[in-house]
Here is the input.
Amino acid sequence: MCRSFSVGRSFVAVSIVFLLALLMVACGSSTSSNSPSNSGSGGGTPSPSPTPSSIDVTTYHYDNLRTGQNLTETALTPANVNQAKFGKLGELMVDGKVDGQPLYLSQVAIPGIGTKNVLYVVTEHGSVFAFDADTVSGTSAKPLWQISTQLPGESPSDNRGCSQVTPEIGITSTPIIDRTRGAIYVVAVSKNASGSYFHRLHALDITSGKELFGGPMTITATFPGNGAGSSNGTVIFDPAQYNERPGLLELNGTIFTTWGSHCDIGAYTSWMMAFSADTLKQTNLLNLVPNGSDGGTWMSGASPAADAAGNIYFIIGNGTFDTALNTAGFPSQGDCGNCYVKVSSTLPLTLLDYFTPLNTVAESNVDEDLGSGGPLLLPDVTDASGKTRHLAVGSGKDAIIYVLDRDNMGKFSSTQNNIYQQISGQLGGQEFGKPSYFNGTVYYGAVNDSIKAFPIASARLATTPSSKTSTQFAYPGATPAISANATNNGILWAVENGATAVLHAYDATNLASELYNSNQAAATRDHFAGNKFITPMIANGKVFVGTPNSVAVFGLL
Here is the structure.
């Protein structure tokens, strides 16, 4: 209860100032931050607590199924995502293209600074940045820390004569964060003055960027075979020929990498490698085209997927496939180019099952590879007979939706595709991304096509979409992401590429209902530059989008 009393004006003024100061401290209000851009060892008074958050985004598309759904978003809803209430808050400036998806950790204790919600960003200049995810002020926000992955005397790789990643190559793939180990794992490529190339696996302290576990580890590999780049019965991993385009995967303390080429240039084959998360040492490897050529894995930047049993799934690009099969139905020489593969995560790495289309050789011969798109594993579904089904979805340049039974993927037949379900004629173009999943629906964004929703009923995808966007997305199409609060307030987010890109938000239950796009606001308020294969990442009320020199941050105005 407040009592009425009379005091002098000067006392009132001082009291008001004092009370306001107390309120600012109590409420966590702050002015602009002067965070250091080194290893986080700066002094000074710790800054206020971050915006409350509990979400961690530690891997590509949120989970190892690669669903692309964040089901813990409570701030962004169909009611407030519109041009009046939502827009670009600013851009976090970096030193190169952001081709890997940004990652996010809540409540990270940064030495000398305080507890922060942290956004982790990698660039093609070979740098790793950690930003305060709650401080976006135009273009002035400084990183909490920043490091370069190059050793002294090195620079990022050139583009190796390929326009896919240009003009420089440093860190292309989405990293992985292991919060228990306090590390973000990154694969980077660099070049020295003598023209030698190096791929290295780094484990960086999430609070400072310092190298952990004796890293970095230079990546080398050999495998028995007579394929491209082999010598005397041994296939050799030539670092000049490869780029770690797909994102990383971690399972049970092992980091997995899969390797693509620079376009289809030079002698290359199909590598998968495993490394200890504790020592960074290579623990095993597998070559899936050991006696042929090509078979790179790139999947437009998507990461390999993994199921609850620890099986790994990814899609290989055009390459040699042995149509002569052994008695178990596997390629007789071990060459599985253009395959959707299932590989054991336990060592040694082993090809457990696969699918490739009946016209696989013809597809590879004209570069119509299945591996232009990435994998999606569906949560368990029940068919009409009550049987639980474990399904996977994937598509590539042939614009066919392949739905595979993960317990029996179908392998190869020259007369028919022995698979669970095949849907033709519904994608309006090639797939250069991956489908996403939310609340019983699969979403596709093919090239020069609308984003389309395919509901699942009785463990089968609808053969026609239930809704689609009015906008058609030019090359490379779109890889959608979904934010929701459990099954409520579902929003589908997608980036339309271009010199000026466009962030779109749609009602996930009806894609004909567009909630917002970044061209709607007056003038150029929400504009940002395009970047080919980027997928939006949503966390704690904000949407983060990689650009050629920044991360554009969107949120409630």
User: Anything to note?
Assistant: Residues 37 and 145 are 4 Å apart (CA to CA). The radius of gyration is 25 Å. The helical segments are 9-27, 360-365. The domain at 34-556 is CATH 2.140.10.10 (Methanol Dehydrogenase; Chain A).
